[in-house]
Design goal:
By secondary structure, this protein is of the alpha/beta class. The protein contains ten helices and nine strands. α2 crosses α4 and α3 crosses α4.
Length: 292
């Protein structure tokens, strides 16, 4: 099944991206109006996040989200045909020198991002890294094995190394023992599960929100500086990723300070351009009196 799916996407995405965007435009009314993919989740999330906005404005965010969601799908699949020059042209990197400065100090780096903008294309970051300091993309294994293998292959392009989250601690201990460095790409806006490494409650988008703290705990334990990867869409098919320091001295931070700062930066980005966040994710499954 995997090879059938992969070849199908591979064949379709031979088309130029401009033609794939036409397909996205056709797909949008099917996904939004006909299938209504998770529309109740999206509508509830947006309504609770922006209670101060009039209904028409919230519906506009909703429609723009679904348009972007379809774009994101074709962009992600098109990645399998990108050359190194093409991915670097479409995903530019800013303030990366601040990240590289940490290697000279003998430190690995935690890069915190979210399901915002195109969070797959920043694998281009691997092309800017020294060979001895690879990019490890931390991920949760998908329940569908076919798509798990597909995304693993996509995320392995250009030198990135996908690491299932349950293997991360073992990897960190191994790298420390071998005195090797790495960059760890952490998508940290998921809903925590009982098996996750801790979480805490914070106010995010007008709601009490259970938030992962695993990245913070690991950064403080191993003394890894932490940066927020701020992804913006500059125009259709083009993005910019700016690295904003959260802390260069994690061992000097207070508990939850790193996580809180990350959530504040993400919230600010969402408020500026809300249509590019993954609103169809069931982000607020739990209430304070109904913890994971």
């Amino acid at each position: 099944m995997y090879y059938i799916v992969y070849f199908s996407f591979w064949l379709i995405t031979l088309l130029p991206l401009r033609l794939l965007y036409i397909m996205s435009d056709i797909l949008y009314p099917i996904v939004y109006y006909v299938a209504g993919y998770r529309k109740d989740v999206v509508r509830s999330n947006i309504s609770r996040s922006f209670p101060e906005k009039p209904q028409e404005e919230r519906l506009k965010i909703e429609r723009n989200y679904y348009r972007y969601f379809c774009d994101l799908f074709v962009e992600t699949m098109k990645e399998m045909h990108f050359s190194k020059d093409e991915i670097k042209r479409r995903m530019t990197i800013g303030n990366f020198d601040a990240v590289k400065e940490q290697y000279a100090k003998g430190k690995s780096v935690m890069l915190m991002t979210a399901h915002y903008g195109n969070w797959e294309w920043p694998i281009a970051l691997s092309l800017y890294l020294p060979e001895e300091v690879p990019l490890y993309g931390i991920y949760k294994k998908q329940s569908n094995n076919t798509f798990d293998k597909l995304f693993f292959k996509l995320r392995s392009r250009f030198g990135g190394i996908p690491i299932e989250k349950n293997r991360l601690m073992r990897l960190l201990i191994q790298l420390k023992k071998e005195k090797k460095l790495g960059n760890f790409w952490m998508i940290a806006d998921q809903t925590p599960y009982g098996s996750d490494i801790g979480f805490f409650w914070t106010k995010f988008l007008n709601q009490d929100t259970a938030t992962l703290t695993g990245t913070e705990q690991l950064a403080r334990k191993f003394d890894f500086p932490v940066f927020y990867a701020d992804i913006t869409r500059t125009k259709r098919g083009y993005y910019h990723c700016e690295f904003i320091p959260i802390t260069l001295e994690p061992t000097q931070t207070k508990e939850f300070e790193i996580t809180e700062r990350y959530m504040q930066l993400l919230e600010k980005r969402i408020q500026i351009s809300p249509q590019f966040w993954l609103w169809s994710h069931r982000r607020w499954k739990y209430q304070r009196n109904n913890q994971a």
